[in-house]
What does this fold into?
Amino acid sequence: MKNYQITSWVHHFMENHVQKGEICIDATMGNGNDTALLSKLVGESGKVIAFDVQQLALDHTKERMEKEGCPDNYQLILESHEYMGN
It folds into this structure.
């Protein structure tokens, strides 16, 4: 097996399993690295919902999404992922 850093391994996994049109949740958006990748992978017909409790995380993620030209297929929520069922 190839030697990956955990982030690289997770991105490799997502790239091989997430398909166009799917709905994905990023429970802790942080700086938006995973959110941006998911947005690109699911494409225009998909949806990404990302959660974080910090306004700074949401701001950084929104900036990254715009900078990277991600499709308008995401929703950034300033709330803990523990409430995603609501």
User: Anything to note?
Assistant: The longest strand covers residues 47-52. The chain has a mean pLDDT of 93. The radius of gyration is 13 Å.
